[in-house]
Specification:
This is Haem oxygenase. The protein is an all-alpha fold. About 60% of the residues lie in helices and about 0% in strands.
Length: about 220
Amino acid sequence: MDGNDVRRGAGPGGPGALERVRAATAAAHERLDAGLDVLQRPWTLDVHRQWLSLTWGLLAPLERGLAAWAAADPGALDVRERARADLARADLRELGVDDAELAALAECPDVPVPTTRAAALGVCYVLDGSTLGGRLIARAAVAAGVPPRACTSLTGREGSGRRWKDTTAALNAVDDDAVDEISDVATATFTAYERWLAPLSARRTPPAGSAGFPAAKPT
């Protein structure tokens, strides 16, 4: 993909790449959100620990794949500042998880491994987007009694909004032919999240008396 030969979207008046990817991934995204429904469920420290353990299992292999791609395609996106697997481990330590437990964490075996810029953008579309929703989750988790220091991986390092803008700008600058690949990889990433986080989806009825998330308000 040559940055000097860019064709945006489907032409004058047509949908841009971002809109096309969003439409193509909408069903997978909605299935994930509906299955988890994290902002409407009660939340406890135990649930938060499970959330962190499972999301680390997704972030670790996804970020390794992005790092390998970035080594071959430097300068496209800064994957190091996007890394959150290390933050998830730090969050777990804040909850008292020890080294042996961290070493035993399982990784999702079915994440997409990007070998092209389009595939990497598909992964980043999901990961960067999740930090925006993570703001709401972190806010509600803290309100439910989770220590703020155990929520850093939900939003990532400072600059999540800028990183999302960088990702969408890069996405909108791709050739038309790359949009399908971006959409396919983003869909596969959403599907990996849905399957790997299924234990949380099944855990819809928490112990009596546990705190709950307040209803989310649009920002």
